């Protein structure tokens, strides 16, 4: 960005930066990308056109039959896709809004605020396995804390981990980790100039109006980032529904109740219960395309409401 | 904006005393609300930690009595923790987790630093396009590549070994490459020029000038990759066997009674031992986690 007063010197010849050096240094990533991202995806694409079952050495090319089956003849899979979209539509807005709410709550000078923030943030660093185990204990119908508390006010025991409640439990468990978003939002809040809030308050805006018309536009890039990463994470949720439903020693996709039987659980089931590697691969590719679609749509929509500081007068 | 402008502005000067009294009352009411909200949230976020601890200290009989049974503190079973370690080979699983997480952290950090340096400092045709691909791979869901990778690795006999972690580590992580690139790109050119004048090649420039400067980011990368690998469930569940798997998998399926039913109290104790290292690392190095979360958020 600096303006050079002298004409661009030719003293820095490009030969000083031989391309081969760059490619030598970047080789670990390039090779890894080709071998561990491109190749598996291509492999899955190839398998998705076959009836491979994971073991038999002979399998046939079946064309797009797996894809056709997925969309026309397999209501279970489409239902799982629908549950995934529902889960995403519920969890992402709630966790971004919740993160913003918590951030506003702790963005003030009060005693032990560091400790309070740490407690809110802590759940987001607990490994997913431990989160699931903890919540299975809290939601346990007999010895669980939630039913214990509800029992105090006379509400009879609820089986939180099976339908029709499993979906709400999954949402609750997911929201427990929203402290990660809180920290990011909190930092963004602290970058909002205090004069802006003061000016708005002097103009007569109440607390909610300041948040709506000053704070949110100012931190919109950070909110947008959380929505993008949140949507991608929510669409591929798998371990939580799998482990929350676990009853025996093995995590079984077939044990997951219908309302939390999300798309990835279905994929897992096709691969590791039904041994339909070809069909599972087709499901993975459809998922891959869905993610790309979401990314593009979010990117498009962001132009309308995300305000980057560098260009304040967009539209 | 219009709603804000049409609103009656507050009149600060008129009847000043009454207004300030009212506003003080309002502020007090507000801060009471804030404290109540904070206490409620603390309870909500902290309760599961408390409950797993109570379960880990209970007897199976107490657990059978329902939620009230866990609240009897006269008979705390600290012995559950001992049994959690001795009943299954928790030490071995702990070692596996420690080994894999350390391996992942060291390899990923080293290769991400090298690649990040290349993107930040070495000019070459195609490097910009490649960097766009690096950023785009962050959007690829990990699971969409994990299962096909599992299929491939099972064909070549890598399932059941730790080699996949070596390969993943060596290829670096897109996010870390991004962080290193941002950091290296901000280092003044003069420093590099001086090194070149002194006759350093690119590798020596990288090792002797850039690496020492990037100590905070190296630490961040080590911590994030370590805790990520420590918490990862799906990869070891798919790629390893019961006898060489990690703690993450073991706590979900190793605590069984002779009939094959899970032993809840021991599982709770084992889970606490499993998350403890992650929490300790987090508490000690909080600011590294938070600063990396910030740099990812700022990217927008």
From TrEMBL, chain A:
Family membership: Belongs to the binding-protein-dependent transport system permease family.
GO terms, biological process: transmembrane transport
Pfam families: BPD_transp_1 (PF00528)
Location within or outside the cell: Cell membrane
GO CC term, one of those recorded: plasma membrane
InterPro entries referenced in this protein's UniProt entry, alphabetically: ABC_transporter_permease, MetI-like, MetI-like_sf
Transmembrane segments: 21-45, 85-106, 118-138, 165-189, 222-243, 277-298
Signal peptide as annotated in the record: none
Keywords of this entry: Cell membrane, Membrane, Transmembrane, Transmembrane helix, Transport
Entry keyword Membrane: yes
Protein name (record): Carbohydrate ABC transporter membrane protein 1 (CUT1 family)
Membrane topology of this protein: Multi-pass membrane protein
UniProtKB/TrEMBL annotation, chain B:
GO cellular component: plasma membrane
Source organism superkingdom: Bacteria
Record's subcellular location: Cell membrane
Keywords: Cell membrane, Membrane, Transmembrane, Transmembrane helix, Transport
Region annotation (Disordered) ranges: 1-24
TM helices/strands, residue ranges: 32-54, 98-120, 129-150, 162-180, 213-231, 266-285
An example Gene Ontology biological process: transmembrane transport
Domain ABC transmembrane type-1: 94-285
Membrane-topology annotation of the record: Multi-pass membrane protein
Family from the record: Belongs to the binding-protein-dependent transport system permease family.
Protein name, per record: Carbohydrate ABC transporter membrane protein 2 (CUT1 family)
Organism: Actinoplanes lutulentus
């Amino acid at each position: 960005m600096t303006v050079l007063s002298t004409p661009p010197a030719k003293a820095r010849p490009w030969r000083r930066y031989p391309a081969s050096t760059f490619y030598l240094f970047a080789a670990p990533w390039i090779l890894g990308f080709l071998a561990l991202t491109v190749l598996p995806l291509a492999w899955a694409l190839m398998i998705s056109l076959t009836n491979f079952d994971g073991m038999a050495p002979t399998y046939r090319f079946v064309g797009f039959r797996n894809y056709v089956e997925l969309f026309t003849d397999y209501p279970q899979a489409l239902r799982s896709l629908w549950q995934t979209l529902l889960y995403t539509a519920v969890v992402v807005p709630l966790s971004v809004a919740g993160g913003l709410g918590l951030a506003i709550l702790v963005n003030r000078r009060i005693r032990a605020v560091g400790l309070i923030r740490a407690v809110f943030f802590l759940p987001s660093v607990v490994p997913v396995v431990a989160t699931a185990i903890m919540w299975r204990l809290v939601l346990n119908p007999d010895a669980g804390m939630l039913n214990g508390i509800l029992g105090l006010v006379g509400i009879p025991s609820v089986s939180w981990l099976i339908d029709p409640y499993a979906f709400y439990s999954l949402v609750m468990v997911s929201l427990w980790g929203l402290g990660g978003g809180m920290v990011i939002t909190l930092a963004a809040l602290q970058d909002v100039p205090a004069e802006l809030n003061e000016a708005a308050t002097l103009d007569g805006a109440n607390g909610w109006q300041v948040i709506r018309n000053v704070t949110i536009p100012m931190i919109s890039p950070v909110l947008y980032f959380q929505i993008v990463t949140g949507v991608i994470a929510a669409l591929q949720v798998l371990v939580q529904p799998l482990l929350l439903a676990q009853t025996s020693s093995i995590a079984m996709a077939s044990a997951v109740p219908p309302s939390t039987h999300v798309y990835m659980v279905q994929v897992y089931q096709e691969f590791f219960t039904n041994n339909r590697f070809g069909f599972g691969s087709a499901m993975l590719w459809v998922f891959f395309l869905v993610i790309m679609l979401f990314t593009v749509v979010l990117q498009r929509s962001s132009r309308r409401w995300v305000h980057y500081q560098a260009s304040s007068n967009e539209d | 904006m219009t709603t804000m402008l049409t609103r009656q502005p507050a009149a600060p000067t008129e009847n000043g005393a009454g207004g300030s009294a009212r506003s003080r009352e309002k502020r007090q009411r507000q801060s009471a609300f804030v404290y109540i909200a904070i206490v409620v949230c603390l309870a909500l976020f902290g309760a599961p930690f408390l409950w797993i601890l109570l379960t880990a200290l209970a007897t199976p009989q107490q657990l059978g009595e329902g939620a009230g049974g866990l609240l009897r503190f006269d008979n705390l079973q600290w012995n559950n923790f001992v049994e959690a370690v001795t009943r299954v080979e928790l030490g071995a699983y702990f070692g596996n987790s420690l080994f894999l997480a350390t391996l992942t952290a060291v390899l990923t950090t080293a290769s991400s630093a090298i690649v990040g340096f290349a993107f930040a400092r070495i000019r070459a045709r195609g490097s910009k396009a490649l960097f766009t691909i690096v950023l785009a791979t962050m959007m690829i869901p990990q699971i969409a590549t994990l299962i096909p990778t599992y299929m491939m690795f099972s064909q070549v006999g890598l399932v059941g070994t730790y080699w996949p972690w070596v390969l993943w580590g060596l290829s670096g992580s897109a996010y870390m490459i991004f962080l290193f690139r941002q950091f290296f790109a901000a280092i003044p050119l003069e420093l590099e020029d001086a090194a070149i004048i002194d006759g350093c090649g690119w590798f020596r420039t990288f090792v002797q000038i850039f690496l020492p400067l990037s100590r905070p980011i190296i630490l961040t990368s080590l911590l994030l990759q370590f805790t990520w690998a420590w918490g990862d469930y799906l990869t070891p569940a798919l790629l390893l066997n019961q006898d060489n798997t990690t703690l993450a998998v073991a706590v979900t399926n190793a605590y069984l009674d002779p009939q094959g039913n899970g032993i809840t109290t021991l599982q709770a104790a084992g889970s606490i031992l499993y998350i403890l290292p992650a929490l300790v690392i987090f508490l000690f190095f909080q600011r590294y986690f938070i600063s990396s979360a910030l740099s990812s958020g700022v990217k927008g």
